[in-house]
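Let's practice the habit of predicting before peeking. Look at the sequence and jot down your guess about where helices and strands might fall. Then scroll down.
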Amino acid sequence: MTTPSTQTRSLRLIGGVDQMSVLRTFVREAAAEFGAGPAATDDLVQAVDEAACNIVIHGYGNREGEIEATAAVANGQIEIRLLDRGREFDPTAVPAPDLSVPPMARRPGGMGVHLMRLGTDAVHHRRRRGGGNELTLVRALDDTARED
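Done guessing? Here is the structure:
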């Protein structure tokens, strides 16, 4: 029996929102290396950017903090795992937004988790021992796997 090969890449950031471009580049390069299509890459970049901005702004109170990012590919999917030591927050428990409310009538913010969900096939959260979060975003590499 053979085991499917798994490729991984990792990145450790210390900083605030000023480091998001480094993280976006990391995701884009990992997706390209793993063979993701352009739509899958764009979806992942946006989902990871939303998640990481939430970590910095809400988890670390807009102060510098550490984010460890790991990208792995197996079985036609790419997984991006973000580890932090910020305030615990489970995005999988956030209810879907009421999309019947026109955008200009909504209060600002609150769409980041929705955008993470739209750009991925799965979002998983675990509380880290000692505090913080482990967030895993999963997306099929193949662009056609998600087309309607």
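How did you do? The first helix runs from residue 20 to 34.
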